Structures are given as C-alpha cells and as structure tokens.
Amino acid sequence: MALAAIAVGLYWGLIVAPPDAYQGDVQRIMYLHIPTIVAAYLSFFLVFVGSCLYLWKKEKRDDILAYAAAEIGVLFTALVIVEGSIWGRPTWGVWWTWDARLTTTAILLLIFVGYLMLRSLIEDESRAASAAAVLGIIGALDIPLIHMSVYWWRTLHQPPSIFRPDKAPWENVAWPLLIPLTINIAAFLILLFYLLSLRYRLGEMREEIKARRLDRGG
Amino acid sequence: MALLRQTYLLLCKDLLLELRRRDSLLTMFFFGTLLLFVFHFSFDPAPDKVAEIAPALLWLAFLFTGTLGLAQLFQSERENHCLDALLLSPLDRGALFLAKTCFNLILMLIVEIVVMPLLWILFNLQTWNLLPQLFLVTLLGTIGFCVLGTIMSALTLRARARELLLPLVLFPLMIPVILATIRCMENVLRTGEFGDATPWLRLLLGFDVIFLTVGVLIFDWVIES
User: Fold this and answer.
1) ipTM of this model?
2) Distance from B160 to chain A by nearest Cα, in Å?
3) Which of A167, A213, B152, B164 could cross-link with B170 by S-S, CB 3.0 to 4.6 Å?
4) How far apart (Å, rounded) are the C-alpha atoms in residues A129 and A120?
C-alpha cells in the first residue's frame, strides 16, 4: 500500500502538476523533499517519546521503538540533505550553503548518528538502552536551542539572504501543486510507518532470540 | 540543603585528589598552550586579522582541552569499584553530577585564566582592557560545556572507543554554546561592549540553566548506564 501511495503521489507530482512559475521543473523535487523532512521530524519525535517512556517505565518495546525510529530518522534526514543538494545546485548554483535550516538539519543528522554510535559501542544491552535514551532526550531538548542559535547567527548581522527559503507556507502554494504535495506527504508517512513496523519487528525478534538463547543456555 | 552539602563533600574529595597529583590540571594546561602554538603556525595571521580569529582559536583550544579533562573526569571512580560504592551510598545522584560539573569547571577556569592572557601575549593583541568582559562570556560558555560534558562523560563511561565517542556525541550538542560565545567575544573585541551581542548572552544563560536542571534531574538514569 505504501508503494502504491508513493507511486500515485510521485506520478501526479512529477508529471501531472504544472511546473512552478519561478523554478520550472526543478521545483518538482519539493514533492519528495518536504514529505521526507516531515517523516524525519516525526521519527525524531518518536525517538524522544520512546526515550522518555523507556526511562520512565523500562519496558523493552519503548527502547525498540526509539532505536527503530532513530535509524529511520537518520536515513530520512540524510536523504533530505542529498535531495536538497540536488535541488540547490541548479537553483542556487552551489551544492551546499550554511543557511540556517540546512545547518540545523545537518546538526540534527550528526546528533542522531552519535546516538546510533553510542548504542552500538556500549556492550551491555540495557546500559546501552538507558544511555541512548538519555542522549535522545538531551538531543531533542537541544534541537530548539540549536535552531535558534543557528538562525540568529545567519540572520542577526546579515540582511535577508539572496537565497529563497526552501519551503513556502501553505497559503503560498497553488492549489494544483498542493494536492500532489499532500498526497506525497501522506505517502511518505505511510512509508515511514511501514519501515518503522518492519524495523520494530526486527527488534522484537532480536529480543526473542536473546531470550531463547538464555533459556537454552541454562 | 542536603544536596548542596553532598555536592560540597564530593567536590572537596575530587579537588583534594587533584591537588595531590595535579595530573589533569597540568596536562590540560600544557595541551591548551600547545594548541595555541599550533594555531599560530597553522593560521599565521596578519596583525590586523588576529583580533577577528582570536575568539575562535581560543574557543577551539578550550573545547579540545576541556574534552581532555572530561575523558579524565570519572577516572578516579572507575578504579577499585569506587563508582559502585558511591552509588550504593545514600547520596543524591544529582549531587554527584553537580560535584563533577563544578570540579571540571574549576579545572577549566584555572586553565582559562592562564591561557587567555597567554593568547593575548602570543598573538600580540592590545585589547587588555576587554579581558574582564571576555572572561564573563568564557565563564558562561565553560559552564555550558561542563554541564553537557559531564552528562556525556558519564553516559559514555562504559562504551568502547570512549575517547572517540565522547567528542562525537558532545560537539553537535555544544553548537549553541560555541556559536554564542564566539559571536559575543567577536562583538566585544570589535565594539568594546556587549551591545548587539546581548541576545547571545541570554542564550548562554538559558542554555546553562536548562541543562544544569536537566542534568541534576536525569543523572540517576545517566549514571546507572
């Protein structure tokens, strides 16, 4: 179903919708770009929720959820940055710029790559889970501060940059473009939950294997 | 208050140990000085450019020196199961956090008091009168560093490749502090007063307060892992 939704959304977005007035066909990447970042933000929110719940109740499933959401979140964030680069090259003329939003997204990626590394480098499973949960919470709390400080850095002493913001508010998006965008967002969210459920199931199976090994081992 | 009294006791213990051996303090100090030398060779700044890059160089030096100090932070607890003993005692975990943070803060401040004038001397800066304001900014930034750093140091206590992992998880989270301190210092060096940079100061203060509180509350779970 996820694949079907994405197929419909992509077809509509890439072929049926009219080209954007200012940017032409390059603008079509927005149909991938915005849904991807929406999915990524949702993933990291799930990491935060999972981490809080795990520290509070110590139930395995919250930890599996946090780990799954972090992996998928990192995937989507990396995709977003690549997609943005692809869009940026023809539009802005550069592969990368230290604009506020890009910088914050890159930092977000770094924080959660650190999260994944922390998990893999701690030997004991339950210790790894608690440590990662704390890091997840602190990371989530720090994100608004990072966003604020990077935004100030980039706008405090510089006039509004020559680069347009890469996301238009809802009112500015014309109706024919809005429909495929919404379909794509919905499609990516479905994809997110599909991947999440797969990864979660994988985590559950790992736990089960461990438990059975312990039983058999005595 | 019990929390403060416990913090004081733990802090005195750490300071006493450090006074006797002085290993953390001396290594941090020499490393900071060494970094200043390396930066001078790497950047070789023209006299008029120096004031622009001095805050950044200073803070890079403090970041790396501080990371060195953080790696050592729980060293005395790792030997002889001291950490288990501490956890078994009826100490508030928040007190352990505060004590370690203050200990690292004191070490870093001692290093900074010496290294900052040293930078002024080595790079031939003339703005000696601005040092008090710059030191205030450094103090706020260092508090933020020590708070987050102590949490991360405790989190990575039992990880493999600990010396590599600690900067990896710490530095992205430190970015607001780095941005705020360097921008503030640049502004002070350029205009002689805080002026436009006051929002950055407020950010620093907010950062310190938020993560100090979070640290005290969350350290129970941190130190378990």
Assistant:
1) 0.81
2) 5
3) B152
4) 10
